[in-house]
Structure formats: C-alpha cells, structure tokens
Amino acid sequence: MNSREQILKLLKQHQTNKTPLPKIDTTALLNVNLVEKFKFEFERVGGIFIKTAFNRIFDEISKIITTENLRKIYAENFDNEINAIIKNLQVDEIITQPHSYRQISIVDASITSCDFLIAETGTIVFIHRDEKFKSAVLLPRVHIIIAKEKQIVGTLEEVFSISGGNFDSIFLITGPSRTADIEKVIVQGVHGPQKVYLIIV
Amino acid sequence: MNYTPQKFSINAKRALENEKLRANLTRAIKHTLTKRTEVVSELSNWEELRQLAHDIKKHTIENLGYYLELFEKRAIENGINVLWAKDGNEAREFVIEIAKKAKAKLCVKSKSMVTEEIGLREFLEENGIETVETDLGEFIVQLANEMPSHITAPAMHKSRDEIGELFAEKLGVELTTEPEKLTAIARKILREKFLNADIGISGANFLVAETGSIVIVENEGNAGLTTTLPKIHIAIAGIEKVIPRLVDLTIFFKILGRSATAQRFTSYVSIINSPRKNKPDSPEEIYIILLDNGRTELLKSEKLKPALYCIKCGACMLACPVYQRVGGHTYGSIYPGPIGSVLTPTMFGFNEAKVLPFASSLCGRCYEICPVKIEIHHILLWLRHEAVQKNLTSKLEKIVFKLWTISMRNVKLYELGASLMRFVSKIGLQPKFKNWTKTRDFPQLAEKSFREIWRKELKNDFK
Amino acid sequence: MKIGLFIPCYIDQIYPQVGVATVKILKKLGVKFDYPLNQTCCGQPAFNTGYWEEAKTIAENFKNIFSDFDYIVSPSGSCTSMVKNFYPEILQDSNDWENKTFELSDFLVNVLGVDSTGAEFPHTVAYHDSCHALRELGIKNEPRLLLRNVKKLKLVEIENSEDCCGFGGTFSVKFPEISTEMVKDKVKSIVNSGAEFVTSTDSSCLMHIFGYAKRKNFKVKIIHIAEILANF
Ligand code: SF4
After folding, report:
1. A149 found inside a domain
2. What are the pLDDT digits (tens) for C121-165?
3. Which Pfam families match (chain A) (predicted)?
4. I need a surface site. Which of B160, B201, C52, C163 has the fewest CB within 10 A?
5. Whose CA is closest to atom 4 on ligand 1?
C-alpha cells in the first residue's frame, strides 16, 4: 500500500461526519459608499489613492514620475487610448513587450490594470487567465494601477462568486509590501513594491 | 545552546535570566497584542467568526479523507502534480527527486512551518542545492543558524542591534541598525536569488478542495515571487490544511491576519490553481506534497483531533504567560508555546517532550485568543493524563498522589493527616518544599479548621 | 431546594475564615443549606497533574456526598470549575454537575439575584480575576458588582487583572522560576494600583500572591471576596 492509500484509509476509518458544514451568509456592504470605503481602507494600509478624470491620467502619472524619480517603466498593454498616454510619458525607457521577467526586474515602476477593487479591505485583485506578467505587480519599486470606478466591489465573497474557480491564479494585494520582522518596526518594500498608487477614473 | 524539549526547564531558567532576550520578547509581544486587540475589537462579530472558523475546520477534519481526495482530483484536473508523503523522509525524497531531475542548483523558499518540521532546507543544502529563506525573519534566523522562535515572527527574539551585527558579520556589509537599511540589504541579496532560482518552495496556508487551489498568505511579497518566478513550484502542506470551499477563505482571512500579525488583511494573498505553460512567468510545473508526518496520529484521538484545526497563527504563543517569559527556543521545537506543547509530544515523540504539557499554568489565555477556538489548555490536561498513563511521571510523584488519594478518600484519614501536620508544624518541623519556599512564603495551617469551627460554633445555628 | 456547601480542603485547613464568611453571608440572606461533614477535596490537584484515576476516586467520594443536593455552592472558582466542567468527563454519571455547581459570587448574583450583601469595608480594594473563575466559569462582572455595592469600599482595577498569577497548582512547584516571574508581575501591578487589599474568588491565587509579596516585603494584604461581603 502506498502512502496515499495508507493515509486515506486511515482517514476514512476515522470519518465521523457529525458536524455539518456551516453556511456562510454573504455579507454585502450595505449603506456604504464603496468608493469612499475603498479609499479609506486602501489609504489606511499605505496605498496612495488618486481619483481623476480620464484626460488627467497623463498628468497624474507624470507627477508620480517626478516624485518617485522614475526612469524606466514597464507598462502592460491597455486599450489604445491609455497606451497612447503611456507612450508619451517622459521617462528614459518604457518597456511594453518584455521577453522575460528579468527586464521587469530592472524597471523602477510598473503600470498595470487590475480586475477588482475590494472596498471592505482596500484590496486590489488580479485574476490571471492570460498572457500577462504576474510578477509585474511585485518586482518594481513602484506599482501604478489604473482602474475604473465600476471595478470596485464590496467584499471578497463577491469576487469569488464572479470568478468561480476558473482562473490560473488570483493575487490579492492590500497595500505595499511590508515587514515587521525587525523589532516590529514596519518597513515597506521588502520584496514587493514600496509604493502602490491607484489611479481611478 | 542545546534546544530540545527535554531541556525545557534548564533553558527556561536561562531564558529568564537573559535580560536582553526578555526585553526583545516583551517589546515584540506587547506591540502585537495591543494592535491585535484594536483590530479584533472593531469587528462586532469576532466571536461568530471564531465559531464559524471552528465549525468549518471541525467539519473538514471529520471528513478529511473526502476533502483531500476532492482537492487531489481538482488539482490534477488543473495540471498540478499531487504527491502524498507519510513522513518527512518521503517528502524530502520527493523534493530532491524533482530537484535532481531539473538539475536545480538554487532554491528559494518562502516561510513554511512544515518545511521546518521536516528539515527540508538543511536536507537540500546537504545535497548540494543552495536553499535560501526569503522571508526577512527567516532569512535572519538562517543567517544566525538558529531556529525560528515564533511561527509567524521568527526573529522576534532579536533586537535591531543584534541583527545589524549579524548582517555585518555574515554578509560583510557596513554596520547599520536601522530596520529600513537592513531590509534594503536583504532585498538586494534576495532579489538576485529570486531571479536565478530554479525552484520555488512554499508552504500553504489553505488548500481549497472544491477548486484545487493552493493558498498562501504573506506580507513581504516573497511568497508571491517564490511561486511566480522559478519554473518549478513545490508547495508542501500538512494534510489538515484543506478547507472545503473558496468562500471559506473569506472567514479565515478575517481571523488569520488579525491573529497572526494584528492586521486587518495581510498584504498579499496568492491563490494558485494551475501552472501556466508557455507563459512569460509563473511556473510550468507545480507540485503539492500532502504531508502526514504524525497528523493522522492526532486524528485517531477525539481528544487530540481539535489540534488539527490550528491555522498556525501564533496568537496562543503571544498570549501565553509562559511563552511571554521564556520565548520560543526554550520549547526546543519548531512549534513552541501552548499549541506546540500539544503538537510536539503527539507528533514527534511523547517521551522526549513529556515535560511540555506540564509547562503551563492552565490559565486558558491560549483558548481565549485562539481564532479557531481550540481548547488548548484542556488538551494539555489530557496530555498530562496520557503522560501518567504512559508511566512517564516520577515515582515519587506517583507515591505522593497515591497517599494523597487515600487520605482524601476517607474523611477520618483526612482529618488525622491535618492534625498530624498541625502537630508537626507546632514542634517546628514544618516540611520545607524548596521549589515553593525558595521564592515565596507558604502559609501555616490555621489554628482551627473550618470543620472544627463548624462543629463547635456554627452548626447549631442551623439546626 | 437543597443547597450543599462545599468548603475545599485548603480553605478548610488554611483559610477557615473564608468558610466562616461564606456561612455568614448565606445565613444573612436566609439561605438554608447543609455542610456535609464528610467532604474533603474535589480532586483537582490530582486531575490537573494527570492523575485522573486518583481524581476519579476522590470525585466518587464527592459524588456520594453531594449527589442529593440541587445546588452546590463553593467559595472557590477553581474547585467549582473542577466539579462543574470536569466531573461530567471523569464520572460520566447522571448528575447534572454543570448546572448545579456554583461559585459563591455567581450563586449570589445569578441564582439568588442578590447584588449587595449589605457589607461595609472602608478600604481601597483591587479585584484579581482568577483564571478559573474568569475563563472556565465566565465570572467577571458578578464579583465586581457585589464589591461595588459594599459600602465605603473603593474598587480599583489592576493593570493586567486578567493575567494569571502563576500559581497553577503543581505548576508552581514544577516550574518555580517561571511561576515566580509571573507572580512578580502580578504583585507589581497590585502595588501600582494603590490598593490596600487584593481580593479574589480564589484563595489559591491569593495565597500565591501573598507568599511572594510577603517574601519581598511588599505591603499587599489579601482577603477573600467572601470575607469582604460578610463584613456587615
Ligand atoms: S492553536 Fe489557535 S492560536 Fe495557536 S497557533 Fe493554532 S490557531 Fe493560532
């Protein structure tokens, strides 16, 4: 008998089935302004929230480029309009078609989209089903996300009920990368980004 | 220093005298507990969440075989390789086999208690495969060649000065004690490792049966990188990690972050369903090793089963007045503190760890804080009973309790014993039990016992 | 309604005044009760050290004495918890130990519906939550309510009042150093509270606290809650 069978046999012997699996009531966020709630939670975990009009995206990113002193940028493939905005940004280099994550590892910032924003916790949701670079949200020092207001949902339950099990992976980001491993002092930017900007239109 | 459970008492004494360690522990623990109270008390339904989490775990553990098979089925459908290991040896062999086949030279590891449990890093290094801990705290203890002292805050026992000196000595960097700078140093070194690693090794906080997902919760982003960059990802998880549904995660996320690091939500969560062949990053092969290593032993006993609900948040350690004072290393096990005193003897050998269930005042703080409501203090009581049954307690103690039972069973003997003690102390022969009287006074017996007063003075009032 | 008074062995022998105070309170409230003279111990010391067989022997003895009572009342959270929470487990009998056993303050407030005993105690008093009363029996407000209604008594809270005093039965002699460190912190916070007296539902905690305080010459006076409540 191999280990699998051995373990399963033993487990089956001790199967009791006394306790029913509890039902989980979906807790929708009622009477809450989702944008406000998201902003509050996102800023509380150290994210930088920028709400702006579509025609201001260029200016907002340009401001970030100046404050963060960004020279090299990786940008995901957005729709034509946003691609055009990104193309005009004043930086040394914009990588849009990397052949390996190594190229992303040397940029100062990445600009990506996301799938959902969760108001309850200020969480940004990335669902991977496609060709996108997963590591683009982790490798650079600065991460800029462009999202639409309608992507905000109340809770993680809602995300799960929309996504089902059909994805390669889901990545949830709630604020910048952080640690408190040294004397409980919170330091941002351990392995992932130090700054997370969310531009919402 | 030699850290084994047998040496608990000696190590405890040493730890108590180590003022630096005490200061480091107190600072870290106070900080986390205060913050935890804040983020727990803002939830109006904390108790309901605990109960819900408890019931989900209870249900799952009662039907563990069913859910593991379901998980396996779904994971295989998703293209994940599922391996079953009955012990550490088998798990290690699986890993080395994969590594050899891939001609791997460098592994990056994210934080995982099971890999500590089976000594995976040491094993890989012995086999010539460089293996690097990428969680900052784990990186620090790896550099110091120590064991983690807490399951979610491994370097809690160290001060910034100590870490600064360690970095300067081991990494040849300029001495600094600023957490930001130290973190930046680690980031730089580890970034290189990430980019060149052949294999990423992780644990798993949860395995979702209905979707075959591997779920990893973290703050630094190292687990994200570990499971994204290398071409091969090996996850190792205890068989108790499975939960039925994706939606169950919403409950566990709420309690886990708050209990482990006093956060409302951890910075990063990876929910991994399948390898991504021919995609720009993400592993092409994913393995999940389901590890037993003594867990089915716990499952056999109704009393011990609940220990398998543990989500390894580490809260019971921080809340424990013993752990607070002696620190994690004293327990001589990678699972220290209250739940460690349950897991260590039951999973890794009762005889060696028989002292641990007794190293508690049974105050119940662990149960009070445990997010999945494990009655840890009552399990410890049960294990004391097991220790007695297994004949692991001292002869003297046994005799004492035999005699005690005889005198307590019979009121005449009880009264006789009490008068004897009164007499003995009257002539100045009061027995000294040093373990108490070295630091504390012990009261004398009262001149007259209550029953005497009752008989002579009170009783008649009631007739 | 038959009420049995259980005076645990160490109160009987070391702190008989606690038993006397309990009797005084019950008498004043007009409660009819019985004190069976053949009682000894609840078996907790053996039980908590792992000697369940021995504990069972003692529990059988207790059962023979107390089975017939509708209520069992005891001025000790710890011993009450032993009977209430663990007798069902070791005896597996038909007695409803869980619902008929009460710690004194719990009994006064929740069974008799009393919130004051009419006592007077012109002192500053700190209440120490014993682990067993607090976490095994869920007693937190009852003693505080009764104390607050004692005339001239000033009740102060001590920092970390819910922390263990480090006694833990045989724990205190198996791990004397750890136990002492715990009681040290407890005594420190009692001293810092400025209280003249520290009180509790459990004389065992008080014995431990006093044992350390006396050795170190701290001016901490201990008094069982029954003694305060009986001061009328
Ligand atoms: S026993 Fe409970 S508190 Fe302790 S680590 Fe496990 S889940 Fe956390």
Report:
1. yes
2. 999 999 999 999 999 999 999 999 999 999 999 999 999 999 999
3. LUD_dom
4. B160
5. B316
Residue A5 lies in a domain: no
The hierarchical CATH code for the domain B43-293 is 3.40.50.10420
Topology of the domain covering C3-110 = Rossmann fold (3.40.50)
**pLDDT higher than 90, residue B128:** yes
Flag whether pLDDT at B410 surpasses 80. Answer: yes
Query: Cα of B286 to ligand 1 centre, how many Å?
Result: 28
Question: Any idea what the CATH number is for the domain that residue A175 is in?
Answer: 3.40.50.10420
Q: Is the pLDDT of residue A131 over 80?
A: no
- What pLDDT does C65 receive? 96
Residues carrying CATH 3.40.50.10420, chain B: 43-293
Partner residue facing B385 (CB), from C38, C50, C136 = C50
Q: pTM for the complete prediction?
A: 0.95
C40 to B393: CB separation less than 8 angstroms, yes or no: no
Pocket probe for ligand 1: among B313, B324, B333, the residue whose CB has the most ligand atoms within 8 Å is B313
DSSP track, chain C: --EEE---HHHHHT-HHHHHHHHHHHHHTT---B--TT----SHHHHHTT-HHHHHHHHHHHHHHHTT-SEEEES-HHHHHIIIIIHHHHH--S--HHHHEEEHHHIIIIIS--S----B--SEEEEPPPHIIIIIT--SHHHHHHHHTSBT-EEEPPTTTTS--S-TTTHHHHSHHHHHHHHHHHHHHHHHHT-SEEEES-HHHHHHHHHHHHHTT---EEEEHHHHHT--
Q: Does C76 touch chain B (CB under 8 A)?
A: no
